[in-house]
Design goal:
alpha+beta, Arc Repressor Mutant, subunit A, three-stranded antiparallel sheet, 42% helix
């Protein structure tokens, strides 16, 4: 059976926390689990609107108050086959080589 677009319970998605994580991580995972479909849709829209940016560039553009907010979703969307990682280039935020993110069309 094909998993739903943003179904985080499918077997190909890792858990939101590790068994060795502290209780606070488990609580945070439980709190965010209900919001993941909306966060994934938002992150996908961000990359579609600005393809080829690095994680930090996307964060600076779409969520400067929490640069990690989008980054945590990008890897999940890559694993789902909705985004792909492109060639690395110099990030305009850090000046270091960083991967870029692109929507998967089709």
């Amino acid at each position: 059976m094909q998993p739903r677009l943003f179904d985080m319970t499918s077997p190909d998605m890792p858990p939101l926390f590790r068994a060795t994580d502290p209780e606070t991580s488990r609580l945070a995972a439980a709190e965010i689990a209900d919001h993941l479909p909306e966060l994934h849709a938002w992150a996908l829209d961000c990359v579609r609107g600005s393809p080829g940016l690095t994680q930090r560039e996307l964060g600076a553009k779409y969520c400067p108050e929490d640069l990690r907010k989008i980054g945590r979703r990008l890897g999940e969307l890559v694993r789902r086959g909705l985004l792909r990682e492109g060639d690395a280039r110099s990030c305009s935020i850090t000046g270091r080589a960083a991967g870029t993110y692109w929507p998967v069309e089709g």
